[in-house]
Specification:
By secondary structure, this protein is α+β, with helices and mostly antiparallel strands. It has helices at residues 12-18, 67-111; strands at 2-3, 6-7, 29-33, 41-45, 58-60. The strands form two sheets. It has a three-stranded antiparallel sheet with strand order 3-4-5, with no helix packed on it.
Length: 112
Amino acid sequence: MGVGGWVLGLGYETKAICEATCYCSRRVVTRTSWTDLNPGRRYSTCDNYKKIRGCNYFVWIDRPMCDRSRQIIPGLFRKINMREEELMKKSSREKCLWIGVIISWLFVYLLM
């Protein structure tokens, strides 16, 4: 399975860790890190990880990213989030405009 906190290889070995159990005999959970140091990097951990008297099971599934990736990816995520917020604002503004058009058509229709 893993050596020194690493999962060997990819593919079937990665799938095997998802079905593994931790030190306290619970099923491990695969999660994705979204920190600036490990953006998009998957890991497996116990549900009791970092809890009082919890399990210390923690294994990285993906290999570490190079320094350049760590510099670029967080900025790309920020740009994506910013574009999504802009899109949501434009979408809500477009809905308001459509409602205004429909109300104005109804008003004109009622006046005729």
